[in-house]
Structures are given as C-alpha cells and as structure tokens.
Amino acid sequence: MADYYPLLARALDALPDRTPALRKAVYDRARSALIGQLRTLEPPLPDEAIETERKALDAAIERLEAAYGTPVAPLPPPPPQA
User: Fold this and answer.
1) Given 3-state DSSP classes, what are the helix, strand and coil percentages for the chain, each rounded to the nearest 5?
2) CA atoms within 13 A on the CB side of 18
3) How far apart are CA 82 and CA 39, in angstroms?
4) Buried b (16+ CB within 10 A) or exposed e, 5-41
5) What average pLDDT does the segment 13-21 reach?
6) Is residue 33 situated within a structural domain?
7) Which residue segment(s) compose the domain that 53 sits in?
8) In 3-state terms, what secondary structure has residue 74?
9) pLDDT tens for each residue of 18-73
C-alpha cells in the first residue's frame, strides 16, 4: 500500500490558493487517476486490492484536511462494479 500523503501534500503546496474547492479538485483528480491506473494493470488487481488503495488515499486526504481545519465535502463511495 502506497503512502499518498506526501504526493497530495506536494500537489496542494503547488496550488496558488488552497481553498476547499481547489483541494477537492486535487483529491478528485488523484482518486480518478489512481483508480484508472489500478484498473488497467495486467494481471488485473482484485477489487479488494483496489479498495485498499482507495482507502489509503482517503486516509491521506483526511489527514491533510485535518491540518486545514475545514474539511471538504465527504467523498461519495465508488460505484459498484458490474
């Protein structure tokens, strides 16, 4: 499991303004990129492994938001896989 905190912290540090909306945009992009990359791996990862990585990303987001003191809106759960 990767440590996403430093990666996200650097992305936030690069923002000209760290508003909740801009932070949420960074988190959404990171989540989309992570899930997209994990779904294209060969051999395919089990859904449980992908979920573990998503939870690790969400934990890093929660740590970052705790430092800002104004959390962004809660993240919706991922859609079920068909």
Assistant:
1) 60, 0, 40
2) 14
3) 13
4) eeebeeebeeeeeeeeeebbebbeebbeebbeebeee
5) 93
6) yes
7) 5-68
8) coil
9) 999 999 999 999 999 999 999 999 999 999 999 999 999 999 999 999 998 766 66
What is the 3 state secondary structure string of 28-47?
HHHHHHHHHHHHCCCCCCCH
Q: What is the pTM of this model?
A: 0.80
Residue 2 above 90 pLDDT?
Answer: no
Q: Which of 49, 62, 58 is nearest to 1 (CA)?
A: 49
Residue-level pLDDT at 75: 60
CA separation for the pair 10, 35 (Å, rounded): 20
Q: Is residue 79 part of a domain?
A: no
Please state, in angstroms and rounded to a whole number, the distance separating the CA atoms of residues 16 and 54: 27
Domain tally for the chain? 1
Q: Is the dihedral of CA 34, 11, 22, 4 positive or negative?
A: positive
